[in-house]
Structures are given as structure tokens and as C-alpha cells.
């Protein structure tokens, strides 16, 4: 209210209004303080018209709603509900998810090959299954089925080769640990529709590290043995789809390969 009186006093001084008039309107200012907000606004509009002249539009008032003004009794802060509603309409901003980049465990801080120290890791049961496919062709496949390959029983020799390879994996793969293998199982299945032999190797251990490499080595070596025993019949034999199918146990959790949509 004091600010309003000072503003009115400044206007009076600019218009050279008599001191008695100033005193009169100073008293008016104190009178305004005892009125309700609505009465004060109406009386202030009348005083504005008295000093500045009536507006050309009788409906005009600097405090009227039609001219962008506000009535004192209508001033209200937005409710908590309305603010919540407005904030809920804001677009959702999803923070960029943190990504984890796996680190090569067989490389040290200088980039040199290094064997992982597993001394602090607990012994747990670990299983790995790997597979491979040998595409023999029609002639070689028929001789394998009829056991006519000159070197002997292809499937029996390949199965033994897979078991031996799993046990010798640390000698073939430089950074593999020499662990105690509890079981190696190599299965060979004939696929007459594609003239192929499907190899499946399963390795089991209880130890501080996995046996994925042992399973892959077993499947690969069994496939190579089939090639070696049949190469005299056909040089077009192909070894394909050497891959890990399953692993369980260990810190990295379980893995199961999803079936390929092409069946390969």
C-alpha cells in the first residue's frame, strides 16, 4: 500500500496537484486498506477516471478481465492436482542406459596375452556342449553308412578322437587351464537328407573355470577325423557350423544358442 501511495504522489506532483488534494488522497489510501479486495479495485478505478479522465470505452478498466487485468478476488494459485496433470503431459525422457563392455580376460593392462589367475574362484559344476557338421557328399556318405571306408569305422574312430582332444585342450590352446575333466561324451548322427554327419560333444567338470574350449575342441577334432578318414573318397568334404550350443555354471551364467531360422 505504501508503494501505491508513493506512485499516486508522484503522479500528483507531475500534474501540479494542490497539496490539499494530495492529503485528501493520502487519506483515501489509508481508507482503501480497510476495504475488501473487490471494493478497493472498484474505488481505485473511480479514482483513475477522476485524475486521468474517463476512458472512451466505459467498460474499460486496467483491472478488468476483458482487458487482460485480473480481479483481486479471482487471483488463485494453481492447485497441486493441476500442476501434477500438466507435468504428466510432458514427454517422457528416458535416460541413456548404461552399457557394459566385456573386457578380454586373456589380455593384461599392456595388451599382452596372459593366462587368467583362477585361484580365488570357487569350484562349481560346469557343463559345455559344442557341435559341428561334416558335409560328406553322396558317395562318401554311402561308404560311411555301409562301413566301407578303407581306414576303418569312421564313427568309432571320430568318437575316440573327440574324447582324446578334450583332454588335451590345454596343450593345443595356449591359455587354457589344465583342469580335471569329469566326463566327455561325443555323439555322431547321420543325416541322410544332406549326406552329413552331425557331431555333438558334451564336457562336464567341477572346477574354477568353464569347459567351453574343451567341448569345441572335441567337436572340431571329431569332425577333422571324419574328414581324414574319408578324404580318399572325396576332396569336396566340408566342415561347417562349429559352435557352442550350451554352457552352464560360472560367473557369466548360462547360455543356450537359439535355433537358426534357416535351420543351419
From TrEMBL:
Lineage: Eukaryota, Viridiplantae, Chlorophyta, Pyramimonadophyceae, Pyramimonadales
InterPro entries noted in UniProt: MoaC, MoaC_bact/euk, MoaC_sf, MoCo_biosynth_MoaA/MoaC, Mopterin_CF_biosynth-C_dom
GO aspect biological process, one term: Mo-molybdopterin cofactor biosynthetic process
Superkingdom in the source lineage: Eukaryota
UniProt GO molecular function: cyclic pyranopterin monophosphate synthase activity
Cited PANTHER family: MOLYBDOPTERIN COFACTOR SYNTHESIS PROTEIN A (PTHR22960)
E.C. number: 4.6.1.17
Native source species: Cymbomonas tetramitiformis
Catalysed reaction equations from the record: (8S)-3',8-cyclo-7,8-dihydroguanosine 5'-triphosphate = cyclic pyranopterin phosphate + diphosphate
Domain Molybdopterin cofactor biosynthesis C (MoaC): 115-250
Keyword Lyase: yes
Keyword field: Lyase, Molybdenum cofactor biosynthesis
Protein name: cyclic pyranopterin monophosphate synthase
UniProt pathway: Cofactor biosynthesis; molybdopterin biosynthesis
Pfam families: MoaC (PF01967)
Coiled coil residues, start to end: none
Major enzyme class: lyase
Amino acid at each position: 500500500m505504501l508503494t501505491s501511495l508513493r506512485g499516486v504522489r508522484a503522479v500528483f506532483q507531475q500534474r501540479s496537484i494542490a497539496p490539499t488534494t494530495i492529503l485528501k488522497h493520502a487519506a483515501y489510501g489509508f481508507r482503501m486498506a480497510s476495504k475488501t479486495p473487490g471494493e478497493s479495485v472498484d474505488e481505485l478505478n473511480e479514482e483513475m477516471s477522476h485524475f486521468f479522465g474517463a476512458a472512451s470505452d466505459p467498460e474499460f478498466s486496467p483491472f478488468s478481465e476483458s482487458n487482460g487485468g485480473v480481479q483481486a478476488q479471482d487471483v488463485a494459485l494453481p492447485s497441486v492436482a493441476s500442476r501434477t496433470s500438466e507435468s504428466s503431459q510432458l514427454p517422457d525422457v528416458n535416460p541413456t542406459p548404461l552399457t557394459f563392455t566385456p573386457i578380454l580376460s586373456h589380455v593384461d593392462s599392456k595388451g599382452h596375452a596372459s593366462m587368467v589367475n583362477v585361484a580365488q574362484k570357487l569350484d562349481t559344476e560346469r557343463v559345455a556342449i559344442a557341435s559341428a557338421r561334416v558335409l560328406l557328399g553322396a558317395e562318401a556318405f554311402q561308404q560311411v553308412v555301409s562301413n566301407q571306408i578303407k581306414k576303418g569305422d569312421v564313427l568309432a574312430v571320430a568318437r575316440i578322437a573327440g574324447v582324446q582332444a578334450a583332454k588335451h585342450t590345454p596343450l593345443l590352446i595356449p591359455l587354457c587351464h589344465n583342469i580335471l575333466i569329469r566326463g566327455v561324451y561325443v555323439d555322431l548322427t547321420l543325416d541322410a537328407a544332406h549326406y552329413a554327419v552331425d557331431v555333438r560333444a558334451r564336457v562336464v567338470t567341477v572346477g574354477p573355470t568353464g569347459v567351453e574350449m574343451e567341448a569345441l575342441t572335441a567337436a572340431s577334432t571329431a569332425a577333422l577325423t571324419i574328414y581324414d578318414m574319408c578324404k580318399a573318397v572325396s576332396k569336396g568334404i566340408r566342415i561347417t557350423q562349429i559352435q557352442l550350443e550350451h554352457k552352464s555354471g560360472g560367473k557369466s551364467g548360462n547360455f543356450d544358442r537359439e535355433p537358426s531360422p534357416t535351420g543351419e
